[in-house]
Amino acid sequence: MDKKALEALLQDMSLEEKVMQLVQIPGSEYEADAEITGVTRGQADDKVKRLAGSTLGVWGSKRLKKIQQQYIKEHPHHIPLMFMLDVIHGHKTVFPCPLGQGATFDPEGVKKGAEVQAREASADGVHATFSPMADLCRDARWGRIMESTGEDKFLNSRMAVAMVEGYQGDDLKSPEHVAACVKHFAAYGAGEGGRDYNNTELSEHTLREHYLRAYCEAIKKNPAMVMTSFNTINGIPATGNTFLMKKILREEFGFKGVLISDWAAVGEMINHGFAEDQKDAALKAMMAGVDIDMTSGCYSGYLEELVKSGEISEKMLDEAVLRVLNMKNDLGLFDDPFRGIDPEVGAAVTEESRKHARKVVAESLVLLENKNKALPLNKSDSEKIAFIGPFANTKRLQSSWAFSGEDENTVTVFEAASEIYESGNIKFAEGCTMMDQDSVTARGICHVDNWQEKNEKLLSEAVEAAKWADTIVLCLGEDSTQSGEATSKASLKLPEVQLRLLSEMSKTGKRIVTLIFTGRPLELADVAKLSDAILVCWLPGTEGGNGVMDVLSGMTSPSGRLPVSFPYTVGQEPLHYDMYSTGRPKPASGPSEYTSRYLDCENGALYPFGYGLSYTNFEYSEASLSKEKMTSDETLTASVKVRNIGDMKGDVIVQLYLRDITGSRVRPVRELAGFERVSLNPGEEKEISFAIKEEMLRFWTAEEKWESEPGKFNVWVCDSSVDGTPLEFCLE
Ligand code: NOJ
Could you list the residue range(s) of the whole structural domain that residue 464 is in? Predict the structure, then answer.
């Protein structure tokens, strides 16, 4: 439909029809078993069901076709219904959780993964996904850190851009693609105390320099939607925040698409103490520029009245409705309301998608420890390996957001091991339950009958298997219901029952390779003491077992790097490498009294951002700069030579960090400004160069402007956020 026809359609619609385009209702209004991803809000009456412009949480080619047919028939202008779904890290083929994808430092691989997800979701009738989540996360207590790509704005930007490009492709009309939604605008990851939905206090410079960056970069790629966040920012809920939505999002970032609220966030402004009632909430959200009200009922209940009374102008309403109609048009829904759906086929996992997911899993694994080269396995043909622990043979390798992934498509670690090793050489023992008795999860309390007895039995079986083995692959971690939405935790320890298993295993004196399955950083200092190797596997998705075994068996060398700091203790949170120096920084060595430090713990992470080991070794030459001074229109090049000095092929992630030594506002001690994944054969050497441009040196100055300031800068080209020797250059 061309622009004129679309405007004509708008003019022809009744006020009620227009309002309803801005209303999104849960899919459970159409299908009883739809995924409910928030607190349910009442029932939509028949009128709302007939006219609501979009729904969420349902998928499946046959049923969506049926719903659409019925809906169009009954809609006065036969405008198609839009189906949205949280395809966060996979639809049928489930990739590692976003935090794991961050660990790949491979935006190309992430983009290709988003293409797979878009293709599968579209074949199941989905038009838009609520992804990427571009929230910066510095607090491991926040369960949704699993849905982010980590603590760094530059890495997050690259990954959010890759996801938008992968989901949307070049043309939204293509039935292989779906609309992307950048969320949660803004600073949802900065909730106080790491508690979900909690309020956020941020200075404008921290907001702009750190928290807004990844959204901003992703928005440059024209995502069809942006979602508001649940939190307040400096006292004003994001969903009613005109400064954020009008000034920053629309005016400064130039966002032209549809702004949707998060689930019930419009109505929640009443609880925040910002709106008096549902009508006031609808008014405030509209005034802030929120186009679609996801499920709160405020727009369906009160928008018509607000327009009739003149509190909201019809012009403002029309602009919002036009944005929604434009999105439907961009998706090609007016030409084909069943775009992408193939009821005969639906979404299916293909060999190609499996292969790619397996590669992404292998790239995402981070080797934290490898004492005496405990890994790879395969010490000899007769090596006996016991796979022990609640994650050793479970299909629970997806996250709480991967609700469309299926067990039958999921490969467990032990299943994958069985494909590689003779059955006489491997054994499985569950070892213990996944959780401590009566653990609280997002879905309620997890109670196991006869928990004590069950665990005694599991433990004795595990001890038997361990005695038989040469190597124990101990598969521990946090259940997928313990990260994701509404899963904040004040402890970052593994469940006690799992720690007991580890301690009993260590008493056998056997080599212990510990795999950690998790959606968040955990406290691993005690685990490190009792393990010969530690491999972080995240929540790896349907190809989890295969990808993990590719690395354990030595077919591929591990190459993932931490996208987030792993602390010594939860007391360090929020923790991130790109902090500001204090006036009394703790010296690297020597006396540290009266400096900025903890008496009982290091300041920095146990395992820092950017860190990860390989089976091979890489040697870095001294880094060099093409010149020592640059003007603002020049480019400077920082280079380093990296050589694989081990005897196995491997990928290394070469990282570029910058520091503005003095500024009108203090600058972080280091900031990631570039990275490259480099593949090297044994003995091979490559030179890696990064261009440094003036625009990379800009920040929110004391003058409240986004610009660089002349002066001295440090550069590191190195292997992690704590590695390397700084070089210096000057911006004139
Ligand atoms: C609430 C979550 O915060 C958001 O990320 C998600 O997209 C919506 N529910 C829809 O499921």
Answer: 351-572
